[in-house]
Specification:
The structure is a homodimer of 325-residue chains. Chain A has 325 residues and is α/β, with parallel strands linked by helices. Chain A is built from ten helices and 16 strands. The interface between A and B is medium-sized, with 30 and 30 residues. Strand 9 of chain A pairs parallel with strand 3 of chain B. Chains A, B: InterPro entries: Carboh/pur_kinase_PfkB_CS, PfkB_dom, Ribokinase-like, Tagatose/fructose_Pkinase. Chains A, B: Pfam families: PfkB.
Chain lengths: 325, 325
């Protein structure tokens, strides 16, 4: 089982409108609701790849109730599909979210059908009390006792959660001898690095913010010196860069892809985790992450990956040793 | 008691963002949720004026649950306030909404804190089945048996409701000898007019669409010929125009007002209904509608009216006999 943590889980709404014009009134043509937040997205991709996944984080209010109902509906559908496929195929996502008094935030993605662009509106998360944080920590330890193959800590922190929250969770996880990946930004990333996670997966902007250098290889090595065992930096259309104790690699698909990059980073995390769970060599994990990212950019549905594209992309990913510039 | 009907009730969300930029990602600074849809807005204004109001229409799903909880919280707060004020003051709104299987729509108003503009995103309403519509009609007849002083039928129709729904409700209401006001647009307005409502309150665009003429007095008279006993047309910053069987009047505040016009039309409906319930002469009803509209435009909170502004505006509204142009 792979465990993903989404402290600031969300109910993601997608609105399709003919054309978004500021100050105008719009009839929304189509509304989609789905569980959101980075760790929940990672879990969905892992599930589609056939990995059993458990999700935790905070959930509350009517929006939280909808989120849990959607997770349960997905799990029921996946169970039916797995039975039909007689083994293999999609694995379901187990809900181990921690109930709080506050209301799960919504995010609204407004898709402009004329330009294809998405405008994103993200509500602030619920306020977490110190008692709720303590309760979560106890529940997290119980989840670690189930012996997950790997843990991913994903996304921003809701108000009230200590800024060193990820550092605390990384220490707990490492004490339990379970590999842990961190995907966050800003101060929670800075503090998290110091707790020595197995992998961090920043993007270009996040790593530059932390290390003060925009040159990817130099920045990745700086992040490694700050404590991460491995740094997998996503470079947008330029693929990914990986720095480990064994060396550095870069990987990309042969051609630049047009599409929607929403969720590409979460798919990369799923690729890295799945490779970790199967104990693949680093270059293979990286290839998987890059192919999944590309298949997500190319998917017609934002944040989902296109399985045939993934199968087709995976052998074409070029992994190269990276040299200092 | 005044009854307001909102067939396409909504959960209104207001998002404040520093500046809305299409295709960008925005952190929402502040989220407000409140019961929405024209008839619910009218009821809130009537309540603030001290009129007992009952609301009906369709409600369902988790969003409907939140809407009802907000109505109940407002009612509890109003009851406390009324007790403190020892009579007079705010009257509470009674929830007589009709439960359906579909989900109450959300509307999202994105307030740009730099420009002050609001961008509106309106979800489609829930699909209403023929059985639900029949059930609603029976519940509506029961509400008419309670003998409301007046009824307001407000807003758009959700999918599945017959386009002649308002015409049906108007006939039922007139059979019960209860005055009925209609505030809608397009085909539901056209059909509603033929059922001879006591008052219609179109805006300039709605009345032009129905009558084919943009000149307000001519258009109002045309709408009257199509069946309405009285036509109260809101002309935006130019105030209102009223055509009844006794004559025609126009009314406006002495100076043009800057502010947010959201809900000004709903406040005008509340003004007309309150004047009707108190059996005021037509020019006084019109003055009340115009002053409430103006106090809504001037209110810092979208869709609410500023009570001191209302008290101050009311004596300053100029009502004049309107002449054919």
């Amino acid at each position: 089982m792979i465990l993903t943590v989404t402290l600031n889980a969300a109910l993601d709404l997608t609105y399709r409108v003919p054309h978004l014009v500021p100050h105008a009134s719009h009839r929304v043509r189509e509304v989609t609701e789905r569980p959101g937040g980075k760790g929940l997205n990672v879990a969905r991709v892992l599930g589609a790849l056939g990995f059993k996944t458990t999700v935790t984080g905070f959930v509350g209010g009517e929006t939280g109730r909808v989120l849990r109902a959607l997770l349960a509906a997905d799990a029921a559908q996946d169970a039916d599909a797995a039975q039909e496929a007689a083994g293999g195929g999609t694995a379901s996502v187990t809900d181990a979210l921690f109930q709080v008094a506050g209301r799960t935030r919504r995010t609204v993605g407004v898709v402009d059908e004329t330009t294809g662009d998405t405008t994103q509106l993200n509500e602030p998360g619920p306020h977490i009390t110190p008692e709720e944080w303590d309760g979560f920590l106890a529940a997290y330890r119980d989840l670690l006792d189930q012996g997950p193959d790997a843990v991913a800590l994903c996304g921003s922190l809701p108000p009230g959660v200590p800024v060193g929250a990820y550092a605390t969770l990384i220490r707990e996880t490492r004490t339990a001898r379970i590999p842990v990946l961190l995907d966050t930004s800003g101060e929670p990333l800075r503090r998290g690095l110091a707790a020595r996670p197995d992998i961090v997966k920043p993007n270009t902007e996040e790593i530059a913010q932390i290390t003060g250098t925009a040159e990817p290889l130099r920045a990745a090595r700086a992040a490694q010196r700050r404590g991460a065992h491995a740094v997998a930096a996503s470079l947008g259309a330029d693929g990914m860069l990986l720095v480990t104790q064994d060396g550095a690699w870069s990987a990309a698909v042969p051609e630049r892809l047009a599409g929607n990059p929403t969720g590409a980073g979460d798919s990369a995390v799923a690729g890295l985790l799945s490779g970790l769970a199967e104990d693949l060599p680093w270059p293979d994990r990286l290839a998987r992450a890059v192919a999944l990212s590309a298949a997500t950019v190319r998917s017609p549905v934002a944040g989902e990956f296109d399985e045939p594209t993934y199968e087709q992309m995976l052998p074409s990913v070029r992994v190269r040793r990276a040299e200092a510039p």
